[in-house]
TrEMBL record:
Annotated protein name in UniProt: F-box domain-containing protein
InterPro entries membership: LRR_dom_sf
Organism for this UniProt entry: Favolaschia claudopus
């Protein structure tokens, strides 16, 4: 039966007084019924809340995380640690972060020595609140128990970060207390990274870590003379990294167990690389490599002021070397210097080549890079500064590296040099992509990263992507990263992909990223990051 007045609803009809009484009488019963339903809903809601309060805590008691074996929980916690640096004393990161999840996890984390086996110590950050933070360093190392330690000590950055520093006398006392704690743990040091001044080095002068495997030092190399002469002669030492503005040529004379090193890095600071004079000379580097037959990776800054003179008798064999990174500094740096190194050193297992030549090469020198590829056709990872390469050498260079799977390119020059030859035509991003559009060139390419792009047209990019997607799935391009130069660009100058295009490439397992760089280098330089300590 149709409810009364249904045909009047939604109209402009005005009911009579009699009809108004009928409607009121009808609503009276309906309102009472609605009140009963609301009361029932309230009662059921209370019952539901009571049941929920009863069930949820009991479900938590039998949840899987509570029943994880301690070894599985430890493995999970260890995976939360930073993978490229030491842990920092911040509640934003593991291990302190996992201590704030619940009391059970906190108890578990505090009982896992390996979780506390790495620590980064920016001295200014520690001294700024010395009473609590020096004690925190000590407690951290106590938690590590007998674990092998990875320690990094970074010198005072107060002037950069604005941290408050105590009076000089108090600072020395506090630093002395901090260093005393570190010295007590030196028998456990396995990896040490130091960026310290001479005063700090004197406090560490007598240490001789018996199980030291990796040593990294940044600063004035003369400070190394303050350390125990046996510091870098331990039988377990495998990796040495030295970075300094000072002259690198005395490095081969340091008392280091060169014959057992598998990883070596000798780097000059960036402020020195353009003019040379302090980087390692070729005549010093080749004999040094002859004393390091076990090297797997090599990173070196070389002075190109010295004219290379190849001597077959001076050639050396690095039979295990897989990665070679070289930066050539000096006004006369060119790929011919790198070709000389490759000719002087036998590297049959070489798979990774990263070259930086800061000045523009002549057409003849540009072809030297192709000769390097001809000698090492199995290189899979190549990084070069494209703008230093002559345009005519582009095709021959990349055809000489048929096994490349990963290419990293710097497309535009960062340094302004009055001696830059404007008559020599450098390579650009567009010619590179046009060359790589031909699948015969670098047929195994899977990752391409190009930084410092000034301009790139959409048709050039589309043709490159379409060609690479025609490859079989095992050799298809997987990642493309394009970083545009630090200039003001209009949207029309950046070949953005539409949503449909992005979804299509993603369906083909191709990840494409665009980075129009607009943040100033000054801001990037001083942005807070854990390696230099977090702001208090």
């Amino acid at each position: 039966m149709e409810p009364p007045f249904s045909h009047r609803l939604g109209t402009n009809y005005v009911p009579t007084d009699e009809e108004i009484d009928q409607i009121k009488f009808d609503l009276l019963s309906r309102t009472a019924e609605l009140a009963q339903i609301d009361e029932r809903i309230r009662e059921l809601s209370e019952q539901r809340d009571k049941l929920w309060a009863y069930i949820e805590p009991r479900k938590a008691l039998i949840s899987h995380p509570r029943r994880l074996p301690m070894d599985i929980l430890e493995a999970i916690f260890l995976q939360c640690l930073p993978s490229t640096r030491n842990a920092v004393m911040s509640a934003q990161e593991a291990p302190l972060l996992v201590c704030r999840i619940c009391s059970a996890w906190r108890t578990a984390a505090l009982s896992m020595p390996r979780l506390w086996a790495s620590l980064h110590i920016p001295t200014a950050f520690i001294i700024a609140k010395s009473e609590t933070r020096i004690a925190a360093v000590e407690q951290w190392l106590i938690r590590a128990a007998a674990s092998s330690l990875s320690i990094s000590v970074y010198r005072d950055l107060a002037r950069v970060w604005g941290w408050a520093t105590p009076p000089h006398s108090d600072y020395n006392v506090m630093m002395g207390a901090l260093l005393k704690i570190l010295v007590r743990s030196f028998p456990q040091w396995q990896k040490i990274v130091l960026n310290i001044d001479a005063k700090t080095a004197e406090a560490l002068a007598d240490i001789e870590p018996p199980y030291l495997r990796s040593f990294t030092f940044t600063g004035d190399l003369s400070i190394l003379s303050l350390f125990n002469s046996n510091l870098l002669n331990g039988q377990h030492l495998r990796a040495v990294s030295l970075c300094s503005d000072s002259d690198l040529n005395p490095v081969p004379n340091f008392p280091v167990a060169w014959h057992q090193l598998t990883h070596l890095k000798v780097q000059s600071s960036q402020t020195q690389t353009l003019y040379g004079g302090r980087a390692l000379s070729l005549s010093n580097m080749i004999p040094l490599l002859g004393r390091c037959p076990q090297l797997v990776s090599l990173y070196v800054t070389l002075d190109s002021e010295e004219e290379p003179l190849f001597d077959h008798e001076s050639s050396v064999a690095l039979l295990f070397l897989e990665s070679f990174t070289a930066t050539l500094c000096g006004a006369e740096s060119s790929y011919s210097h790198l070709a000389y190194i490759v000719a002087s050193v036998s590297m049959p297992k070489l798979r990774r080549l990263h070259f930086t030549v800061e000045t523009q090469c002549s057409e003849q020198d540009s072809f030297a890079l192709a000769s390097i590829g001809a000698k090492h056709p199995f290189v899979q990872d190549l990084a070069i500064h494209l703008y230093t390469l002559h345009a005519r050498a582009l095709s021959e260079t990349f055809r000489a590296f048929p096994a490349l799977t990963n290419i990293q390119i710097r497309a535009s020059r960062r340094l302004k040099d009055d001696g830059w030859d404007t008559h020599v035509k450098p390579c650009g991003t567009a010619p590179l992509l046009e060359l790589l559009t031909d699948n015969i060139v670098c047929p195994r390419l899977q990752e391409l990263e190009v930084t410092g792009i000034i301009y790139l047209s959409k048709p050039t990019l589309d043709a490159f992507l379409a060609s690479r997607l025609q490859m079989d799935s095992a050799r298809r391009l997987r990642r493309l990263s394009l970083v545009f130069e630090d200039v003001q660009l209009n949207d029309s100058e950046i070949p953005y992909l539409s949503l449909g295009e992005t979804q299509f490439y993603a369906s083909q397992s191709l990840h494409i990223s665009f980075f129009p760089v607009t943040v100033s280098r000054e801001k990037r330089r001083y942005a807070p990051w854990p390696w230099t300590g977090l702001l208090p």
